[in-house]
Design goal:
The complex is a heterotetramer of chains A (112), B (86), C (118) and D (85). With 112 residues, chain A is mostly helical. Chain A has four helices and no strands. Chain A has one domain. In chain A, helix 1 runs antiparallel to helix 2 and helix 2 packs antiparallel against helix 3. Chain B is mainly alpha-helical. Chain B has one domain. In chain B, helix 1 packs antiparallel against helix 2 and helix 2 packs antiparallel against helix 3. Chain C is built from four helices and no strands. By secondary structure, chain D is mainly alpha-helical. The chains are: A mainly alpha (112), B mainly alpha (86), C mainly alpha (118), D mainly alpha (85).
Chain lengths: 112, 86, 118, 85
Amino acid sequence: MGELLDVVGGLLMVAGSGFLLLGALGLVRMPDLYNRIQAATKATTLGTLLTLLGVAFIRPEWALKLLLIGIFLLFTNPLSSQVLARAAHRSGLVRLPAGQVDRLAEDTGEKS
Amino acid sequence: MAEFLINLAASLTGVAFLAALWRFFRGPTPADRVLAFDVLTIVSIAGIVFGALVEGRFIYLDVALVYGLLSFLGVIVVARYLERGL
Amino acid sequence: MAYIAMATGFILILIGLFGALTNRNILRMIVAFTVADTGVNMVIVAIGYMHGRTAPILDVAVSAAEAAARIIDPVPQALVLTAIVIGVGVTALMLAYTYKLYEKKRTLDIAQFTELKW
Amino acid sequence: MSNLFIPMTVLLCASMIVAGLMSIWSKRSLPIVMLSSGLVSLLASVQYLLLAAPDVAMTEAAIGSGLTTFLFFFVLSRVRGGANG
């Protein structure tokens, strides 16, 4: 029984690491800042949560603190990516490529 | 079997760390570097959990807890600086 | 493993000293000083590491009876813990002086502050 | 299973040297330099954890990486305009 739980936890950890690798690969390969934000933060959040779940399968007595870490990740991680995207949009550092329309600036009436 | 799976997962996490570090090294704008910093922190949380699992100590998970709370603060400080200057 | 960390600490000290001596901006000098501070802390922690032992915190994994044979020396870690806090105090003091100098002269170039030259 | 720590140490130490060299490179702009200094502290914190010092790792992650970066960016936003030199 314990052996089976170890193998299931290991498979979950490999899946989580695969999602982390996919997120980092999207961070390298995507052409634009906004594409990079949407590729990197979602995939890495899912990857870290799967890794924590796998560790909770291998060591069941650690589950409470791993759950706490997961809850903190779910609180803070989308918030930081949203603040970063808003700062990049408002500061005007990141230009859209030619031929694309900035719908957010049209909606909110900003100048950027 | 489980040991091999854990080693494979750690290797994949190391490759993800290298990719995020490459983006940190040559991001065109500062916002790219801040994003790479965030991803490096999340990958480091996974690495800390691997270290706690290998060492077998429960107390190492507190460091991951502190990481999850404080990377957020750093990113928000830099983002507010980029926005209009803290 | 401890030797790799110790070598990295010495390399960080050298990098920090090089940056503090060659940059002309005061803020860049303070950043380089922070890097050197991190290097010093890493050297002290790497000196205190022993191979095959674990962290000096007693819980269910390490009981009090076998603690003397399984934990490492906690004195360098306490030393580094104090040094980190003192380091952030020194950094805050240097940044406060930087802000006062900027208010006085409206520049951060180190070549402009020539009052103590004769 | 503890032989996993040596590749992690090599990876972290090489990344710390790269980030330290970025943080003293004088052609980079000043926010990038400060962010690189914060990255050195962050990776040093993981390295402290691998060197069996979790209390030092917690303190370094809270103070060295969080509070120092906040202080640097606070002062940088106050002296904006004279910072390029």
